[in-house]
Amino acid sequence: MASTDTPGVMTGKPLIESDRVEGTTVYDQKGESLGSIKRLMIEKMSGKVAYAVMSFGGFLGMGEDEYTIPWNKLTYDTGLGGYRSDITEDQLRGSPDFYRENEDYEWSDRQRERELHDYWRVPYYWGI
Fold first, then answer.
1. What is the DSSP string of the chain?
2. Phi, psi (5° rounding) for residue 62?
């Protein structure tokens, strides 16, 4: 995702390396840190980023929880040097489990992906 100062107007480089996205802070609408991006989930066939798995809470990497956020919930903010989102801490805590440490996660379960997108009220990345 390219950086933008104004929606639809790109500044800087059009591409970014995945390892530069990992660890980037995610901020709420007030500019307060919610957590950081731990990994990206990329659709193999299209190459589109579908999700950001975000770490939240804990201290020095210990006791962190992971939450899966649809990629289109994040917008890069050049002023913050991180991603801004309208999600809240309460929404994160109440979001569906969909990450590696969850015993029953299954990335190929389209119904679970629908539930995740419906929870976040965003369009499905795969279209309809």
1. --EEEETTEEES-S---HHHHTT-EEE-TTS-EEEEEEEEEE-TTT--EEEEEEEESSBTTBS-EEEEEEGGG-EEETTTTEEE-S--HHHHHHSPP-STTSTT--TT-HHHHHHHHHHHT---TT--
2. -100, 135
Q: What is the pLDDT of residue 35?
A: 92
Structurally, what CATH architecture does the domain formed by 3-120 represent? Roll (2.30)
Residue 53: closest CA among 61, 63, 65: 65
Inter-CA distances, 49 with 42, 72, 76, Å: 4, 9, 14
Return the higher-pLDDT residue of 6 and 87: 87
Paired strand residues for 55: 36, 66
User: Residues 4-48: pLDDT tens digits?
Assistant: 455 445 556 777 888 889 999 999 999 999 999 999 999 988 889
